[in-house]
Every structure is written in C-alpha cells, then in structure tokens.
Design brief:
By secondary structure, the protein is an all-beta fold. It has no helices and 25 strands. The chain starts with 10 loop residues before the first strand and ends in a 5-residue tail after the last strand.
C-alpha cells in the first residue's frame, strides 16, 4: 500500500491494521507525524463512536487526533456492545482490534419450515432469524468461541452421509469442512476457534478426530481402543471429556491432551452417563446419569 494524502480530521477505511502505518501522510505527499487511531472489528461493519460521537464503521482509520484517552464504542446488530478506553500517543498510530461477541442469542434447530434448519433468537424470544436454507437437514450447531460462526452437521450436497460444515456469520455462507467419513457426530470447537473436535465413523467404528475449520490438517486425536461419543473441549484447551459405553451402561472419561492419558470420572456401575458439559473455568463437569430404576 502506497502513501495517500489525508486531510485534517478525515476518516479513511483500510483492510488491515498492519497496512495502516504506511498510509499516513499530509501535504504534497511528504510523510510527517500525526496521531492516528485504527479501529478494526470481527465481523466488520460495526458502528464506531469516539467519545460518544459517531465516526463511521469498521475498519476505520482516524487521523489528526489530540493525544489523550478516548472512549471507543462499537455497536453492531446482534452483537454485544464493545467498549474500550484507549490512549492515543502523539505522532503514533494506535490500533484497536475487537472480536465482537454474539448478543444474548441461542442457536437452535427447527423443522418449522418443512425440514431441519438452523435459527438463532434472543434470550427474550425476540428477533428470530433463520440462518440455513437447504432442502437437506442441518443440525447440531455449535458456536465458535470467537463468535465468527458455527459448525454444524448436514447431509446436503446430495451426500449419502452426514458431513461437517462451517457457517460464517460475516458472509452468511456455509462451506464444507469434512466429508471423508461414513458419518460424523458431536462437533466441538477448540478455544482457538480454529480446530474442530468431532467423532468420525468409518466401518461402524467411531473415533475422535480433529480438523481445522477450513478442512485442512485432519488427524486422529488418539486411538482410544473404544467407541466414543459426545466429546467436548475444555475452555482452557487442555482436556477433552467424552462418553464411552453402550445404551445401558456408559462412563464419562477425560483425556489429558498433554500426556494423552485418560481417566474414568464417573465409574457408575450399571448406569448410563452422558451429555457432559464443562463449567466455564474447566474445573467441573455437569452430566446426566440414568440408572435402571431411577434418574439422578
């Protein structure tokens, strides 16, 4: 990117923060110092308010600012408000990059329009939005931690089996992630929002696999020598919880990803244990247990 002439008080839009430093100039093309603020959000298009005044939408470059603290507020439909206080130094470029979090919205599956599709809605029941449109069934949606999209399962694209797809909220487009299995189950995002943990079935054998959300770097997490279902990545990325057993008796295990060791954390004889869910700090697990005579 070459340098451009910027008039005092103007706002300019640029694609990436790392490109901004080479664009600040004034006068007849001679580059001189100026205090500037680059504001980027994911997804883009968020309204930018600087000290309460609307200045444009992201990505945004503001130049010739007074060196001082600024309140930077980002507002985008269906996302939580982002608020940060930033000090802009004299004759320097300061950058703010924010990953917007979804508002209080729930992903869910419904067949209200004829087949299973994915929707989201506010916690108060307002703003119902249909996200997927396909004659095939779409189900098992799971948010990415960075709120940029979600992974789901579908038998679309005339497939005889179900496959993994990623739905990008910025483009509102779904792309296939993995189609090399007879069936896939229980996708779960890693904390980095890039890797997807899932159960892949080949020849009636189910194992734990990991793949990048772009479909690259497929690998077997570990050959556990047992059937596995319902895996979930811990919030710190250090462990995976999963279920192993059969319809009348199953146990919950934790796989330590550093030592690749497993341990049984339920050990409930003659009981079915399933649907594990990590607490937000990764220190506790909630799950459902069902005995032969009672639920508990």
């Amino acid at each position: 990117v070459g340098s451009v002439i910027i008039q005092a008080g103007e706002s300019h839009i640029f694609p990436k923060a790392q490109e901004l430093s080479s664009t600040i100039s004034r006068g007849s093309g001679s580059t001189i110092g100026t205090s500037a603020l680059a504001i980027i959000s994911h997804p883009t298009g968020a309204a930018v308010f600087l000290n309460g005044a609307h200045r444009g939408v992201t990505p945004l470059l503001l130049v010739d600012l007074e060196p001082q603290f600024y309140e930077v507020k980002l507002l985008s439909k269906r996302y939580k408000e982002s608020l940060e206080y930033v000090f802009v130094e004299e004759n320097k470029l300061t950058s703010v990059e924010k990953f917007l979090q979804p508002g209080e919205r729930i992903l869910f599956v419904s067949d209200r329009d004829g087949n299973r599709e994915i929707y989201h809605i506010d916690f108060d029941g307002e703003n119902l939005t249909r996200l997927t449109y396909d004659k095939a069934d779409d189900y098992s949606p799971v948010w990415a931690p960075d709120a940029g999209g979600f992974v789901f399962i579908s038998n679309r694209d005339n497939s005889m089996s179900n496959n993994l797809y990623y739905f990008d909220l910025g483009s509102l487009q779904a792309t296939i992630v993995m189609e090399d299995f007879d069936h896939v189950y229980s996708p779960s995002f890693a904390p980095n929002s890039k890797d997807i943990l899932f159960v892949g079935e080949r020849g009636n054998i189910r194992k734990l696999f990991v793949v990048n959300k772009n479909g690259e770097n497929l690998r077997l997490l570990k050959d556990l020598k047992r059937e596995v279902i319902m895996p979930r990545w811990s919030s710190d990325g250090k462990s995976v919880v999963f279920v192993s057993g059969h319809k009348n008796s199953s146990e919950i295990f934790i796989l330590d990803l550093k030592g690749m060791k497993t341990r049984n954390v339920t050990d409930n004889f003659n009981a079915w244990n399933g649907y594990p869910a990590w607490r937000h700090d990764g220190k506790k697990i909630a799950y459902i247990a069902k005995g032969y005579t009672e639920d508990f």
